[in-house]
Amino acid sequence: MNDELKALVDEIGRKSYDARVGHHGLPEPFDANLWQALETSGLTRLTTDQGAGPAEAAVVIGELARWAAAVPVAETDLLATWLAARADLTVPADGPLTVAIADVDGDGRITGTARGVPWPAVGPVLLAARSADATFVAVLPPGSADGAPNVGGEPRGEVTFDLAADDVVRLPRAVAEELVRRGAWARCVQIVGAFDAAARLTVSHTGERKQFGRSLDTFQAVSHSLAALHGEIERSRAAMTLATFAAVEHGFGSAEADYAVTVAKVAVGRAVGPVTTIAHQLHGAIGVTIEHQLWLATMRARSWADEFGTTGWWATRLGRMALAAGDPWNLVVGP
């Protein structure tokens, strides 16, 4: 099943990428044609409408990341539609959605500004305003596209809100925590997808490029760099896969998923630096242009590593888990 799904998404993503060559920008424009193809195939709301689980969602968003897809599928399916269902709020049955997360004091009116909102102007925004003991949820109109994009070119913006208590649905604080966990997991999956693109491009480039009559990959230093690149990627994939299995077996709201996603966000985030550095070094100057797929992969990976919590924030959280466990070994190998 997942092999067929992967082949389908790969075909759709590849066609989208080929069609957009020469049309990338800062910010990257929303790919309406790709969205339509994915929506027609039932892939934009795979978990919420099609009954699929995290394993299938990982295939879709990972493959789309590999082709630098300019659509908010993770934001729509895993985050916004899920949050709307938890709050029993009505959202459009089709089209893209996004989420905005902000902290509020929870007294009186719910006011504030959510920053770094992904794809803020493509469709309705599901607000998750976090107080010390609650999550306030509301559906907001599309935000502004005037904000600076992330370093990967994806639109990011601010959404300001001022809502009365009757305009929001009050849910437990744990809902916002699961929302962030879902977002962090999705970014890990996307980063590994971008890593795969970077590795494929780097292996191809070093195998084809000749120097002193030999391909670059025959030089010992280049071979060592390629080995290091793949080692970082596979370590990241292992952590991401652990988090996916935890979500499949126990749900994103579980303690098991909490631990596994925390580990994945740290492991994957720490790999971003070496993977992107090695890939660009082995490509030379050709890899730094916006039209080269390497740039589209590596810069998105760098951006995603800081979203839904930075690597340092999650590393601190992992350390606190270890301290709270008493015996860190039990945390690592326990059930």
UniProtKB/TrEMBL annotation:
<keyword id="KW-0285">Flavoprotein</keyword>
<protein>
    <submittedName>
        <fullName>Acyl-CoA dehydrogenase</fullName>
    </submittedName>
</protein>
<dbReference type="GO" id="GO:0005737">
    <property type="term" value="C:cytoplasm"/>
</dbReference>
<dbReference type="Pfam" id="PF00441">
    <property type="entry name" value="Acyl-CoA_dh_1"/>
</dbReference>
<keyword id="KW-0560">Oxidoreductase</keyword>
<dbReference type="InterPro" id="IPR050741">
    <property type="entry name" value="Acyl-CoA_dehydrogenase"/>
</dbReference>
<keyword id="KW-0274">FAD</keyword>
<dbReference type="GO" id="GO:0003995">
    <property type="term" value="F:acyl-CoA dehydrogenase activity"/>
</dbReference>
<dbReference type="InterPro" id="IPR009075">
    <property type="entry name" value="AcylCo_DH/oxidase_C"/>
</dbReference>
<feature type="domain" description="Acyl-CoA dehydrogenase/oxidase C-terminal">
    <location>
        <begin position="175"/>
        <end position="303"/>
    </location>
</feature>
<dbReference type="GO" id="GO:0033539">
    <property type="term" value="P:fatty acid beta-oxidation using acyl-CoA dehydrogenase"/>
</dbReference>
<dbReference type="InterPro" id="IPR036250">
    <property type="entry name" value="AcylCo_DH-like_C"/>
</dbReference>
